[in-house]
Amino acid sequence: MTPAGRFGTAAHLAVGLGVLGAAGYAFVAVVGHVFHGPADAGALNALISLYMLVNIIGPGVFAALEQETSRAVSAAAAHGDPLRPVARRAGILALWAFAALVVVVLVAWPLVLGRVLEWRLGLLVALLVAIAGSGAVYWARGLLGGQQQFQAYARTLYVEGAVRLVPCLALLALALEAPSAYGFAFAVGSAVAAMSVLPALRLPAADAAPPPDGMGRSLLYLTGAIALSQLLANLAPVVVTYRSPDDLVAAAVFGATFVLARVPLFLFAPVQAVLLPHVTRAAAMGHHDELRRRLGQVIALVAGLGALGVAGCVWLGPWAAERLFNTAYRPTVGTLAMLGAATLVMMLALVVQPTLVALRRQRTVTIGWIAGSLVFLGVLLAGPEPIAAALVAQLVGPLVVLAVLLVGVLRALHAPPAGVGAPPAAGRR
Questions:
Q1: Separation of alpha carbons 156 and 143, rounded Å
Q2: Per-residue pLDDT at 426 exceeds 50
Q3: Pairwise CA distance, residues 109 & 320, whole Å
Q4: Mutual orientation of helices 386-414 and 362-382 as an angle, nearest 10°?
Q5: What is the pLDDT of residues 353-402, one digit of tens each?
Q6: What single-letter DSSP state applies at residue 429?
Q7: Closest CA to 88 of 201, 225, 199
Q8: Cα–Cα distance, 223 to 408 (Å, whole number)
Q9: 225: how many CB neighbours lie within 10 A of its CB?
């Protein structure tokens, strides 16, 4: 790719990230202004919880589908194999994942989910719509990222953001105070984004070929890992709301502050999409030196950007929470500093993860997120004070994950590359 082409791709990604990020934070800001009184604290918490649940349940599963599809497409392209069987297999896995998520949500509704969403059936339907849209758009992004079609990939970002942002602002202008309407405005963006890139998903026709081996098993490991990563990234406000039925105002302030501190993390996800095809091709050829170089560069970049994010949380965070999100009171600098530091650690863990995926070490990724999630949940649920427990859990859980993933990468890069760069098996095209 020429420098001009790289600049154009970067510009498209920047626009997409900006629109998508603005849409997410506009949603929280708008509902914070519409449902701002003590009497509306329940509706506000339900909408913030919907926002978090969409990030846990939808992207938590389907981001794994994107990464595994991108890896399989990149590997097939590197070996000259047809791409259509990969796309077909990934689509079938997406449908199975969607069906499983629908069952989980419906079972959880009478047990705990209904209380979190204030028993509003409209928000339940909005959650299911968001899950279906996530399945479609992450499948599309996996195909586009694996083929390095990053301009079309970026289009899904800014279409998704625009479709979320415009209806949300229209509802605010109409002074509508129906929580379900805001939930639907947030939910439909992913499906529209997937439809916007359908022409770019047409793959070359190929002779009949068997589906790629191991995608289901690999996706199972990766789904567990990414679902747990989204749990660590988004669950704390939901648990604080559940554990604070007598102090919903404080829970709402914490939820809005939590979302604010996650700005770098929510805008960071496409970095994985750009990184994974490059490291997969290097892994397929057994070029571990290139893997080390790319990983070191990205870690340094993310650490620098994350440090700026922490500084922004400390400097502007309390003011932004009170003014932009209309919180009932100004959160403390200490709260935002801890949440900003936790976001930095999460970003570092997520940038190490694609290297392990490229090296076919999905099980190591899953082990890392299981270990971190156990620590996270233990602290989150055992702490006597919900908000203090959430702050500590948000920091120590991701630290455990990062430690496990770094050890896994070091072992993988120093292991013999047998099997990683093996030529195609007999009979493969």
A1: 12
A2: no
A3: 33
A4: 160
A5: 877 877 778 788 889 989 999 999 999 988 788 888 999 998 999 999 99
A6: -
A7: 201
A8: 18
A9: 29
Q: How far is CA 421 from the centre of its chain?
A: 29
Contact 235, 346 (CB under 8 A): no
What pLDDT shows up at residue 204?
65
* One-letter-per-residue 3-state SS of 387-410: HHHHHHHHHHHHHHHHHHHHHHHH
H/E stretch holding 340: helix 333-358
C-alpha closest to that of 42 among 55, 52, 31: 31
Rounded-to-integer distance, Cα 5 and Cα 10, Å: 9
End-to-end C-alpha distance for the chain, whole angstroms: 26
Non-local (6+) Cβ contacts of 376 within 8 A are: 231, 232, 393, 394, 396, 397, 398
Band of residue 419 on the pLDDT scale cut at 50, 70, 90: very low
pTM: 0.66
pLDDT range class, residue 225, cuts 50, 70, 90: confident
Report the 10 Å Cβ neighbour count for 335: 22
The string over 180-198, giving b where at least 16 C-beta atoms fall within 10 Å of a residue's C-beta and e elsewhere, is bbbbbbbbbbbbbbbebbe
Task: Give me 214's structure tokens.
Answer: 């191991």
Residue owning tokens 């790289």: 6
Q: What is the Cα–Cα distance from 60 to 113, expressed in whole angstroms? A: 17
Percent of the chain with pLDDT strictly greater than 90: 9
Tell me the two tokens of residue 71. Answer: 């890896």
Distance in angstroms (rounded) separating the CA atoms of residues 231 and 55: 9
Q: Tokens 């995926």 identify what position? A: 357
Burial readout 352-369 (b: 16 or more C-beta within 10 A, e: otherwise): bbbbbbbbbbbbbbbbbb
Classify each residue of 228-240 as buried b or exposed e, where b means 16 or more C-beta atoms within 10 Å of its C-beta. bbbbbbbbbbbbb
Is 326 strand, coil or helix? coil
Residue 295 has a CB neighbour count (10 Å cut-off) of: 19
Span 152-183, pLDDT tens digits: 888 888 888 888 888 888 888 887 778 888 88
